[in-house]
Fold each of these.
Amino acid sequence: MLALRWLSAAALIAALCVALWRFARGRGAFARYAAHPSAVIALAALIVLYVIAAFAPWLATHDPIAILAQALVNHPPSRELLFGTDYAGRDVFSRVLYGTRISLTIALLATVISVIIGTAYGATAGFMGGTLDAVMMRFVDAFLAIPRIVLLIAIGTLWSPLGMTSLILILGLTAWFPTSRLVRAEVLSIKERDMVAAARALGARDLAIVRRHVLPNVMTPVIVAATLGVAGVIINEAALSYLGIGIPDPTPSLGNIIREGTPYIATAWWVALFPGIALVVTALAYNLAGDGLRDAMDPRQVDHT
Amino acid sequence: MRRLLAGRLLQGLAVIWVVATFTFALLHLAPGDPFSYSERRIAPEVIARWRHVYCLDRPLPAQYVCYLRSVASGDLGYSISQARPVRDILVDYVPRTLELMSLGLLASFLVGIGLGVLEARRRGTFADWGSRGITLFFYSMPDFWLALMLALIFAYWLPIFPISGIEDVINAPTNSWWQHVVDHLRHLVLPVATLTLMTCAGIARFQRAAMLDAMQLEFVVTARAKGVSENGIVRHHVLRNALLPIITLAGLTLPMLLGGAVLVELVFSWPGMGFVTAMAVGSRDYALVTSSVLITSALVVVGTIIADLLYALADPRVRAA
């Protein structure tokens, strides 16, 4: 029965990939993206990951929170229990599926928050210029000097335990500093272009210029940075859960599954190994996809290959 | 040069002031104050005295001034989990983090620059492709998981390196000084390897791009036209120019290394700043955690200033400006 479910999930993924491929073939940026085999594989991996995340309840073999049996504590991987069980006798395979779902959701939402704030902040600083710009950017400099994980640990410790919503907010609110710098630099160069001067001569207001001319031109590097940023957020979320300030125990997240496996690493290595592989695959896929996007969307910054 | 240094120092001070204001805001906005979670291990009179010392019984503006003054004088508060001032804790733990950091920085630059040069010279070949793939693979790993896996493979499965700590506690008392050194170095291998694998991808990528940029400069074409060997071109012309921008990267790599050190130190029980920070999480030690924010950012600021000065020393065009 379960094999059938996995087969149909695989068919769905294959259909999605084929549809994307046919849509992409021969179209400017899409063709440039498709020219990178690694980027295409990364995109396929991301589709697989999101399908798994979306259908986690349907694909899981067991209840991720249920304790199977006392005899099944730290049980090694087998045909029944694909990734083995943890110290409490819970199925690691199902926990990893649900954990991927939670980690992907948090990372995506946190990245959306950070992109919105970073773009608004950077665009304001770059467009206004002068003292305001200088003050705003010194502020960003200060926060870039704090290692992000140390900042997150401090906030997490003071407000622990964090709920899912506050975790998303905190990850988003601490991730926008590099984006704002990037946007500011882009805005500074766009501001000098003729189209902006022309719009101003025609009597356009600042807000209209920003919306019609500046933001659309800024979006390309922002999308690339956001894609690469998701990988960082996923890793930071895992680190917080690993430290015990992220998602609390019975609910699985990739970080807290590794946390529970750490004391038993010498004997029950599978508990820490498999969620880590899921994390690496996710982060690597986002990094490769981001590199592919940069080459495809921003021909000025082409990597010399 | 002197003006450059003065400007950088001023900027650095501004950064630390903003960070200190931020940690003050954090402490103030958090539920309770640094002494609320002491689990009655410390007598109430003692806590009341410390509250008074850190001005927590005074109005907010006075607290802020008091906080800035104590930070400026190096007094970072009182740690409830270790029942002693944070400054004493830092004196014990920061040097071990600096040891780990400097070795990690050195190793990741050696490996990163080496790989970058290799990739640029073998551009488009399997070696280039493979090296970039492998470094990106390690870059995508969560640092704590990489550390765990290295410990699993090289300490549990193949008992080559010690699992944790800074020295072998059983043999330490009888070791000669030479055995001490070897033992300590063996304990350093896995943490430094983790930090190196984590950060060398960025350095290699940067070095590769800088090499490829420098290879297109006109004096390289001239050298090639004069018949200088390909090795000579790389060594004398390309590498020299490509190494300059990488100095700046040292300043940018520091936050990543310091952040990575937190979890790497935790996994390997390396008694440094990061280890203490991670341990402070469970005991809700406000003063220790916020001091860690201040100290790591101060280290980053100092590192960046050093990198800027080195850059100015290496490049006469900047020095003159």
Amino acid sequence: MPEPLLAVEHLSVEIPTRRGVLAAIDDVSFAIEPGEVLGVVGESGAGKSITGAAIIGLLDPPSRIAGGRIVFAGRRIDDLSDAAMRPLRGKEIGAIFQDPLTSLNPLYTVGRQLVETIRVHLGLDRSAARRRALALLQDVGIPAPEQRIDHYPHQFSGGMRQRIVIALALAANPRLVIADEPTTALDVSIQAQIIALLKRLTREHGTAVMLVTHDMGVIAETADRVAVMYAGRIVEIGPVRAVVKEPRHPYTVGLMGAIPALGLRRERLPQIDGAMPPLSAIPSGCAFHPRCPKVFARCRGERPELLPVGSGAAACWLHAEALGKRP
Amino acid sequence: MTQEAEAPLLRVEGLARHFDVSPPLLNRLLERRGRVLLKAVDGVDFAVRRGETFALVGESGCGKSTVARVIVGLHAPTRGRVLFAGTDLARPAPSAERRRLRRRLQMIFQDPYASLNPRWRVRDIVAEPLRTHGLCDGEGAVRARVDELLGEVRLAAADGDKYPHEFSGGQRQRISIARALAATPDFLVCDEPTSALDVSVQAQILNLMKDLQRELGLTYLFISHNLAVVYHVSTMVGVMYLGRLVELAATADLFAAPRHPYTRLLLATVPDLALSGRARAPLAGEVPSPIDPPAGCAFHPRCAYANDRCRRERPELRQAGRSRVACHAVEEGRLPAEG
């Protein structure tokens, strides 16, 4: 088996507070192969964005990695100093965030930001860097790039800004892009354009993508595999088709059922009662057990690990029963 | 049809709302620039029958929220009028009468974090309309009514003594609904009520709204950008583009046979969860600025069927099958039926 591009092993992230240390991410493991698109889906507070931030070393203090390892291209990166991480970030691992305005400097033209990124990471001279910047803008679909390259971020619409952010993230040909809710702030018709663009460019460049979003629709269209997070843990992971068509964890089942779909009009949407627990009150055993329609005794006392089921894995004791692995 | 005979509960006629976004007077004089008008809503007609859920759908800047705000009286209309139960809400009527009508028309906002006063207990937030409109006799009655309202939105009476920050987004939206219901309205304007919520919470709120509609006989104007949600909740849909309605149809008709090219575009961009392999059609172009909308049909720069007439002449809503559509191509029969 080829070595994965990114391996996250037993990662834990904690947030120290006045009232004790909270576990934001609790023992999360997954891998991304070269060129693969892994979707990470979950609702607010599930820990999906923190996982992405931990990988690129941009956790907001006082959050910190409390355990586990992150290995990128065979090299451990979770214990790197900020100075050692900086050349990796942007060059090897690109990032796209929800709000394009926070990723762009409002005081510099987009051309200057692109040229600077290209020169720092690829060591090109000014005119070669500008040629590459123009080609990138063309690639992400900015009309008339020769004129637009000297414009400031505020002179672009939201969709165009997100295209520029994608150009910046891909400027140094990174091997992995972490895209955190890249289309959430955009209108639906623009969203489709950005998703198509991201898919095309990453396929052309062979870039692997970790796509973090709350939108199962975006994942279904874009990802190869998907990891579903709940209360700081992965509850299910597998090929996107399998997870969408035949979810195995009761939370994924509920999540898929709760999405209104065209062509299937129901009087009521199947709903999961209650809400995701706050980090300060994660239930014992399986964190989903108080909301789970299939809960039984073992779920309350014992925490399930990811167990293989079908073509993926789910952290649910139902599948241990099915496998006959009950100790 | 008997519903046709019944007068609509809400009628919007030729509604327009323009905003003056001109630079300051001094700049206008020095730079010789004129006034600039943003035509957020520019001629919208529709009617909502009792018990119906009428959805207004469109992308940012199409004017759907401005329509909602004009209807509840947060903006005055620039042109046209809003008739509620047959009475023009903007016309100076006796104030007691207008107050009574306004009470019957309430609004739920998108952001449950911004629409609740963080310094008030939930009990006082829900009681405010009761006190303002003098709907209860004495504090005991207010208390009993607040408990009842919290129950209606499936919150516990004890939740009344807490502050908004102690609740999740979904629970806050329940509080907003309880506050709106306190005035015993028969018409609720809901401006993206679930857009800020996670999907599992969205399902809870949509189910609650449907239950309340059935229990209390409510009529909804439902503003949303999410077509799947609109498909799920509404009975009638109006599609807006740059301040005007481009298509008006019963929900079943609109989704089975979308007619306007913009409606078709919106439907094609809904993410495909069935994994049927249908590629999303990423239509080129963006919504133009409402300050300087294209001449003729505002959609023509993005439309594959645009011709000279579309660039010149603004289409009006006309009957097309069972829908009403503002499109020259539909009217002339040169738009292919959608496969």
